[in-house]
Design goal:
The protein is an alpha+beta fold. The chain folds into two domains: about 80 residues, no CATH class; about 90 residues. About 35% of the residues lie in helices and about 30% in strands. It is built from four helices and nine strands. The strands form two sheets. Strands 1, 2, 3, 4, 5 and 6 form a six-stranded antiparallel beta sheet that branches. Strands 7-8-9 form a three-stranded antiparallel beta sheet. A hairpin with a 1-residue loop joins β3 and β4. α1 runs antiparallel to α2 and α2 packs antiparallel against α3.
Length: about 200
């Protein structure tokens, strides 16, 4: 096989791996803050180089494809930028796994805080705990001055109840996140806060 075919097989395999991982709610956590911009850029660059070297492909089509791909990538990057997602990793004292919290807020009269959770063992690949996302909405007059999403969820006061249960003392009360995939019950239990 030629270098071109090997390159296409490698880039196609990486793309297929990312698609399969996404379908099963697994993610490379280092790619999560940028979405899929790095793999998209790699695809555009590799395919452009291969197309420029191929004698039967018109270079004008290659330039048009690169420009179109770059425009799509920039629009995608803009949406990621305005999303302002932040991430915090909370390691388990049991040294078995960690919880990565993806959070953002949206303000329009009241502030809504969104939290998504990913369990990970080594910090490279994370499984989304999609059934345990938390949304906390606070009216404008109730929102504490200078509060940030970490304080609203209580990330600094979080504790590992067991090896697989994380507890947060949030603005709305106690929230528990179960890292077991078989705990589909109401995992974000809530009790009123004790102030």
């Amino acid at each position: 096989m030629t270098k071109t075919k090997w390159t296409l097989i490698i880039i196609g395999s990486i793309d297929l791996l990312l698609i399969i991982m996404h379908l099963f709610s697994y993610y490379f956590l280092f790619l999560k803050p940028t979405g899929y911009i790095i793999p998209i850029a790699a695809n555009i660059i590799v395919l452009a180089i291969i197309a420029f070297r191929h004698p039967r492909i018109n270079n004008l089509l290659v330039v048009a494809g690169v420009l179109l791909g770059t425009a799509i990538m920039l629009i995608f990057a803009f949406f990621i930028w305005i999303g302002e997602n932040s991430y915090k990793k909370i390691d388990s004292p049991h040294n078995q796994q960690a919880l990565v919290v993806e959070y953002r807020k949206f303000t329009l009269g009241e502030t809504t805080y969104y939290y998504d959770f990913y369990k990970t063992k080594y910090g490279l690949i994370g499984k989304e705990l999609s059934d345990q996302s938390i949304q906390i909405m606070i009216q404008g007059r109730e929102n504490p001055e200078g509060s940030n999403p970490e304080e609203i969820l209580g990330m600094d006061n979080s504790e590992w109840v067991t090896k697989r249960i994380m507890r947060f003392i949030s603005f709305e009360g106690t929230k528990e996140i179960h890292l077991d995939s078989d705990s589909n019950a109401d995992s974000t239990q809530s009790t009123p806060p004790n102030y």
